[in-house]
Write a structure and sequence with these properties.
This protein has six helices and no strands. By secondary structure, it is mainly alpha-helical. Keywords: Disulfide bond, Signal.
Length: 187
Amino acid sequence: MWPNSSPFSIHLFLSFFFFFLFVCSFHGITGHNIVHETCKKCAQNDPNISHNFCVTSLQADAKSQCANLGELGMISMKLTRENVTKTRSYIKDLLKKKKLDPFMRACLHDCFDLYSDAVPTLKQAMKDYKAKQYEDANIGVSSVVDACTTCEDGFKENQGAVSPLTKRNYDAFQLSVISLSIINMLK
């Protein structure tokens, strides 16, 4: 046995250990189910939402395993903010390239402005969400949906132009509409 330990303390330790395993197992199952159920509802309520994208995204955050619906909403908003911030940085790096077509450079500048505006908008939307001001949060997140859609559409104005941001715009769009769907469930 362990040095300087009584049988009672060992029994108490083992009891807590097995209780902890039980609770973690229970929460893991619940978290798994709530993510899948939430994503299922999101996809049913909005044809723009990919169930698989939703599940994969939310499960990427370890906190989702023990989250409730309100916490999943905050997780989705944080994921959106992270995506928007990284996309903005990516666009900034693209703009540093010397050999950019003038049309492409103009589109990237527009996208940079859109994503730059989206970052503080999302921060405010998250504050509104925490304060349970769901209408205001909805308006903020909706503007992010508009930003990534407008960004992608800008490249389509010139035939043959290929957006270097299609995947990033799609991800930002998906994360935003997941957040909106959860906000609408909480209203």
